[in-house]
């Protein structure tokens, strides 16, 4: 869009219009050829691109010719007019208008003001009128006229040619300043203007031209130094090494302008190494190069999109995933089909939620990933009903996660001992709830047989064993304290109970963290693995293994398969590997590797670090996208939709109102703020569209987006998402409190 004409142009009906559209219209009107206009660039940008082809340090373009302007590479984080913080973008400064606000009034002369008043655009492009080639000759002419009128030149004689605007051309300034023939040229030019110059007149003219061109070079150098200083500060370096690509008739043809400009810049920037490169091929070559780059990027973008298309799941595909989840849920619940089911639907023996009469002090352990938490939970009833919590977080080193079971549980007990000492409670025996977030077969509330490790754990001697017994044995080995392990629960169950304490509609728990899982309150008549028909029981779905039987193979990509093959448990937990925090970063790393091998990223150069498994952490996705989007794994919401539909159908309801308690680090990365969905196609966008929801209005809150998306997948359910503020450990303590209440009744 042409903002304003400069350099003497003043064609009507162009300002405010798209010049590319006007050019296309003219080409079409002509009718004898067609051209694809890929890019419109300023001559400064073209100059920078031309010089940058040979010198990769070139990050500034400068034009000093008929007009003057500059461009440079600015950090995206500083460009408020454009979305995004990463990388850099070339800024066309349009510095010819510098001073239009009066900031240069103290250095503008009477000659500058006279030129401005007589121009086509008074009050505009004031800096350009002080330094560019279009006005340099005219500045000299006005000075000569004034001096002649005052009798300081030509014996006070004036001629019509000298009094005519534009008759003293800028090229005359260059000719007069030449070292050897300058005075002779001055005599010839002045004679041509009808004057009879003396030798002293010619010397004076030479000095006037020198002063005018030097001022121009100094002003240009000062402003250029400001640009380079900004680049230096942006980069945060002690010494800047940079290159300026330069074009324009004044810079190229004036005998001393370039040298004076360089000297000024180096004087003002002693801590910078600045190289100046002349654009020999003009800005047109740069425009062609921008076009070539645009074509290359377009081709690469198209190739990337084709590869990433497999990651884009349509609304129909999400509904199909939901239906397949329902089928696997039924298999897990059935006695005859349970053994072959991938979604195990494990009974938890949690059948009651808090009723408000629970009270007492309870310990809770929360083991579900690389961090382990020990909590003291004080439950109060009556008028002061509430929960008071104290907790401490401990890390679990990889060598312990993948060592022996004895080492793992000894480490857990060591952490409990440290916590009791920290709380001043050593020797106290308390009821304990154990949040153990791995697939377990339960035959009672205080018994959990570990079926298989997930989330990178591989401690030996644990699978097939009762984790409560393993914990008790470790406590006895330490011989410092004794604890009554009342309940072992999954983190999803703990989350549901935590949120259920606040919201009685909460009947679903969802974890979106290192791993992913869900639980919900199922009718006892449908839980065929447990005797009894009355009431409800919380079922731990263990949906991370959804797809292990091949039912998701049609939507798994080559990147999912690569992540799976190199994991600790190939062929297992396939759904979890497509959607959970432990694997999303690795999926992205595999995509980056593939793109780079194909020459679609990083100029085809793969760094050694990028080849390292796990180097691209899932948190990087959030950091990269924090200004672009908020994301949520759409596959998980297909699962949620399957669960809430089943609850509704179990109860024979036309409409269900239900709350889902949610916890997990991946969820908590984006608990608030804008949620941009249905993004424009991009490498990020396509991955997200598998993880994202269908398009929704923006901006809107995080929970609103989830609620509306599940509504699209399950239109007969109103689902609210409630974040668990206190984690699943509090839920384990509440389950323990409920069990103690029931046991004591």
Automatic annotation (TrEMBL):
Pfam families per UniProt? Hexokinase_1, Hexokinase_2
Where would I find the Hexokinase C-terminal domain in this sequence? 60-293, 508-626
Q: What is its main location?
A: cytoplasm
BP GO terms, sorted: glucose metabolic process; glycolytic process; intracellular glucose homeostasis
InterPro entries noted in UniProt: ATPase_NBD, Hexokinase, Hexokinase_BS, Hexokinase_C, Hexokinase_N
Q: What are the UniProt keywords, alphabetically?
A: Acetylation, Allosteric enzyme, ATP-binding, Cytoplasm, Glycolysis, Kinase, Membrane, Mitochondrion, Mitochondrion outer membrane, Nucleotide-binding, Repeat, Transferase
Q: In which pathway does it act?
A: Carbohydrate metabolism; hexose metabolism; Carbohydrate degradation; glycolysis; D-glyceraldehyde 3-phosphate and glycerone phosphate from D-glucose: step 1/4
Localization of this protein: Cytoplasm, Cytosol; Mitochondrion outer membrane
Gene Ontology MF terms in the entry: ATP binding; D-glucose binding; fructokinase activity; glucokinase activity
Listed under catalytic activity are: D-glucose + ATP = D-glucose 6-phosphate + ADP + H(+); D-fructose + ATP = D-fructose 6-phosphate + ADP + H(+); a D-hexose + ATP = a D-hexose 6-phosphate + ADP + H(+)
Provide the E.C. number(s) assigned to this enzyme. 2.7.1.1
Q: How does it assemble?
A: Monomer. Interacts with TIGAR; the interaction increases hexokinase activity in a hypoxia- and HIF1A-dependent manner.
Per the record, the similarity remark reads: Belongs to the hexokinase family.
The entry's function note states:
Catalyzes the phosphorylation of hexose, such as D-glucose and D-fructose, to hexose 6-phosphate (D-glucose 6-phosphate and D-fructose 6-phosphate, respectively). Mediates the initial step of glycolysis by catalyzing phosphorylation of D-glucose to D-glucose 6-phosphate. Plays a key role in maintaining the integrity of the outer mitochondrial membrane by preventing the release of apoptogenic molecules from the intermembrane space and subsequent apoptosis.
How is this protein named in the record?
Hexokinase-2
Organism in which the protein naturally occurs: Fulmarus glacialis (Northern fulmar)
